[in-house]
Write a structure and sequence with these properties.
By secondary structure, the protein is an all-alpha fold.
């Protein structure tokens, strides 16, 4: 008997036995029994076909009909398709060994050799920080041993260090900051599409970030008049449509909500000019409507806060006189002013002002001086004259925001570092007697006061202007002032540790600064945390082997966690994750904020033909939205006392070394002091070897 006939007999016998069992159990008539069997057979064949198709997808495609597939599935062992599926799954998992989430760019080791951004790429200018410039410097073999480049930013959490690996880690990958060079991304986004997205109802959490980021960044590619006229045109278009009245009103109210947010956040965009004329004319046309009257009143109150435009020195401006001195890439600024006389006039402005609930009267000559003198707007002198309020309404949101900003600027002006008292043992004992909680609270108070005096758009201005332009400007740059405070605090940490001659005294100061860094981390003050870590991990302190051995190992382990948190590994991935998971009061690591914005602004072009390269502004918008959210949650500090004033003066007025802008590296004096107290220092890359024993 052949094997095939034997197999057929076995199948026949099995089929007959199953029929007998079904016959004995089934009590229904024969017709229904055959119908149910046909349905069951049909369902089983469909499920089997679906299973075969699912298992056959990852396998190699073969030319076979349905019968051959069925027979092969019956004859082959069941482990064969599972093996193929498991192999394909492993291949897919190998390609996803490390998920690339947000704020985690691909490391330079994973880039191909043909990448356009190699180690020879010209890195744009970065902040004027002694401890931050080394972040973007390519490290060579000789420079790795140079004391000037040994800061905490050169450290890594890996065991082995090689000059090539440090070079690849120090060179930030700009593949995520550069726009993809594929044809899809080179088209850009038309301005009209951006307006549609600005006015449409947000569909998810990501879309809700578009409005604040767009209102902050649009001055880099459009004028206030161009944006306002586009919004008004959309408003009029919706009003003339034949959609349902309720839907139409909801759409128009959302447009007015965007205008209210715009006028409250950036009242300087509506300084005397065509944008203000158009806004007043538009509000006058809708303020008599019962539906739009509350929104029109809110926008009108925000427009009462008439201040100078503080962004005309770098942004697109409606003033034709200011546009003459711009470059050829700024020719778009001149076009919106051609039709300004037809849409807005001085008479409409006077009519709108008389209808408001404002009893403050001013001369027309003062208003003309505010609108015509463009140099006074761009000067930015830090005083009340830089933002003179001609008309105001105390109940408006724009006035409240302006008063809060002016108050923070005045307080920040008094907290500028003024090192003039030479460090001595008196300051050392005074510092050691202050509790750590009080020190952390006052350091955070100073940082928050400076941070709250910065508008989100000031960061865009800071990276748009060169260093010489910022220095020549008469406007106080609060970002540069905060960077100086960062450097001063880092030098304060290093100088206080190196002051004493005995290792036990230096160990006490080092231990206290490590505990202070942990307390500052608990307050989510990442800027001061970065400064303290920079001072301790600098080459001047890292080489003090005798001093570090006297610090308890538990304190060093705790500080090592902070070092990893602020490390540069994977583009500061640990810090970015901690920042995203901090939902209470927080202060960002300012050097990294400037680096991200500088990279995005300088490595990408603003326009692609006549369209806008919105990919560039998406990167900048993520940073700006994080800043805006952090500014909405202020710290709550107690009243200032004589004790707190003493702590503030100790930190801000103690002079460690010369911190002038002319000095190339003020840490050289600290390094000489470090060599003086300990002749033979340890390799800074091996200072945590005791943790690996």
């Amino acid at each position: 008997m052949s094997p095939s006939s034997h197999g057929k007999s076995l199948k026949t016998s099995a089929h007959s036995n199953s029929n007998q069992r079904l016959t004995s159990r089934e009590t229904s008539p024969k017709k229904s029994r055959s119908r149910s069997r046909s349905k069951t057979r049909l369902q089983s064949s469909r499920s089997k076909e679906l299973l075969l198709n699912m298992t056959a997808r990852p396998a190699v495609i073969e030319s076979a009909d349905e019968d051959s597939d069925t027979s092969s599935a019956e004859e082959d062992p069941p482990t064969k398709p599972k093996t193929k599926l498991r192999l394909d799954t492993s291949k897919a998992s190998e390609g996803q060994t490390r998920p690339t989430g947000p704020h985690t760019p691909i490391s330079s080791e994973e880039q191909t050799s043909g990448s356009p951004m190699g180690t020879s790429t010209l890195i744009p200018e970065t902040p004027d920080s002694y401890y931050v410039k080394s972040m973007l410097r390519p490290v060579s073999t000789e420079a790795a041993e140079n004391r000037a480049y040994q800061t905490f930013l050169n450290m890594d959490d890996e065991t082995e260090h090689s000059p090539g690996k440090e070079t690849e880690q120090l060179m930030p990958t700009m593949s995520n900051l550069r726009v993809d060079e594929s044809p899809k991304s080179e088209t850009g986004v038309p301005f009209k599409e951006l307006i549609d997205k600005l006015l449409i109802l947000p569909a998810n959490k990501s879309d809700s970030k578009f409005v604040p980021s767009f209102l902050c960044l649009y001055r880099a590619f459009a004028t206030p008049y161009k944006l306002l006229s586009a919004v008004v045109d959309q408003f009029v278009t919706i009003e003339r449509t034949k959609m349902v009245h309720f839907t139409k009103v909801a759409e128009m109210l959302r447009y007015l909500q965007v205008l209210a947010q715009w006028t409250a956040t950036y009242p300087g965009d509506f300084a005397s000019g065509p944008a203000r004329d158009l806004a007043l004319t538009f509000i006058q046309s809708i303020e008599n409507s019962k539906v739009f009257a509350p929104a029109a009143r809110e926008i009108s109150n925000n427009l009462d806060t008439l201040i100078a435009d503080e962004d005309c020195d770098w942004a697109f401006d409606d003033n034709p006189a200011a546009a003459k001195g711009k470059t050829s890439s700024s020719n778009h600024k001149k076009t919106p002013t051609t039709s300004s006389t037809s849409l807005g006039s001085s008479s409409n402005e006077n009519i709108a002002r008389t209808g408001r609930k404002n009893n403050h009267k001013h001369d027309d000559s003062d208003d003309e001086n505010d609108g015509g003198n463009s140099s006074s707007r761009g000067s930015g002198v830090h005083s009340n004259a830089s933002s003179i309020i001609k008309n105001y309404n105390a109940s408006s949101q724009s006035y409240s925001n302006l008063m809060q900003l002016e108050s923070a600027k005045l307080q920040a002006e008094r907290l500028k570092p003024n090192p003039h008292i030479r460090l001595s043992k008196f300051q050392w004992h005074q510092f050691m007697e202050i509790p750590i909680d009080d020190l952390a609270r006052e350091i955070t108070r100073v940082d928050w006061t400076m941070y709250s005096s910065i508008r989100p758009r000031d960061f865009v201005r800071h990276v748009s202007l060169t260093t010489d332009q910022r220095r020549n400007s008469r406007r106080v740059d609060n970002i540069s002032m905060m960077v100086k405070h960062f450097n001063h605090l880092a030098l304060f940490v290093s100088g206080m540790i190196l002051l004493r001659d005995k290792p036990k005294h230096r160990a006490r100061a080092l231990e206290k600064f490590m505990a202070l860094a942990w307390k500052v981390r608990q307050l989510n003050n990442y800027n001061s945390l970065g400064a303290i870590v920079a001072g301790i991990n600098g080459h001047e302190i890292a080489r003090l082997n005798s001093t570090r051995e006297m610090v308890p190992h538990e304190v060093q382990r705790q500080f090592l966690r902070l070092t990893i948190l602020m490390g540069i590994s994977r583009s500061h991935a640990a810090y970015r994750m901690a920042w995203d998971n901090s939902f209470t009061e927080r202060i960002p690591f300012l050097p990294l904020v400037r680096q991200d914005l500088t990279m995005a602004a300088s490595a990408n072009q603003t326009f692609i033909g006549s369209n806008i390269n919105w990919k560039k502004f998406e990167i900048m918008g993520d940073v700006i939205v994080g800043i805006q959210k952090s500014l909405e949650q202020p710290y709550s500090f107690g009243q200032r006392t004589s004790r707190t004033e003493e702590i503030t003066r100790l930190i801000l007025e103690t002079k460690i070394v010369e911190e002038s802008e002319d000095s190339a590296d003020p840490r050289s004096e600290l390094y000489d002091r470090s060599v003086q107290v300990e002749q033979t220092g340890a390799d800074p890359r091996k200072k945590f070897d005791w943790l690996r024993r």
